[in-house]
Amino acid sequence: MSTLESNAVYYGKSTGFFGKWAAENGPSAIDCFTVYESVVIDNSLKAQTKWGDSLIAIYPEGGTIVSDHPYVILDAPWVDYWERLAATQFLFYLLQEEPQNTAQVYGFRPANPSVPINGDIFNELNGVEYEVDVPIFKPLSGEATETLFTVWPAVRNPGV
Fold it and tell me: Could you say which DSSP state residue 126 is in?
């Protein structure tokens, strides 16, 4: 982690910030950064128009991590039957084809494997691959993520 951090030159407030910043400042401003595919899709055309060079997602051959924003239905004494039922119904709705297709418009791949990936969105013209051909790892455990928050401040390059 300290090797990676020693090369950091800039920190933003979010990955969306980096995509916009890269598209606005061009290829001489930054070589690489880690963002969601949705950020690449959202900013690739902007960079192409301004600099003649689009943003391109690189999927390391060693593998990549899928951003997994879990949907949780709490099992706690203060969650009543009706709240649990509403949460279950909402999850059912989110996994239907229409909401999954809407999510793709915003650059998010479908969570429901029966919903096909939209090739008009996930393609090389938008800076991403239709099919990700590298190993895909699950996100770190909660304990490992918590450890990162402890270690990172100690090795963080102050950047700009």
Answer: G
| 79 occurs within a structural domain | yes
The two tokens of residue 126 are: 């938008």
H helix or E strand, kind and range, residue 137 = strand 136-137
The predicted pLDDT at position 112 comes to 95
Domain count for the chain, please give it.
1
Range of the domain at 7: 2-153
In angstroms, the Cα distances linking 15 to 69, 112, 141 are 15, 24, 21
The CB density around residue 18, as the number of other CB atoms within 10 Å, is: 20
Residue 36 maps to a domain: yes
Mind listing the pLDDT tens digit for each residue in 45-87? Answer: 999 999 988 899 999 999 888 777 778 899 999 999 999 999 9
For 91-113, give one letter per residue: b (16+ CB within 10 A) or e: eeeeeeeeebeebbeebbbbeee
Q: With respect to residue 158, please indicate whether it lies within any of the assigned structural domains.
A: no
Would you say 26 and 99 are in contact if contact means Cβ atoms under 8 Å apart?
Answer: no
To the question of pTM greater than 0.90 for the whole model, the response is: no
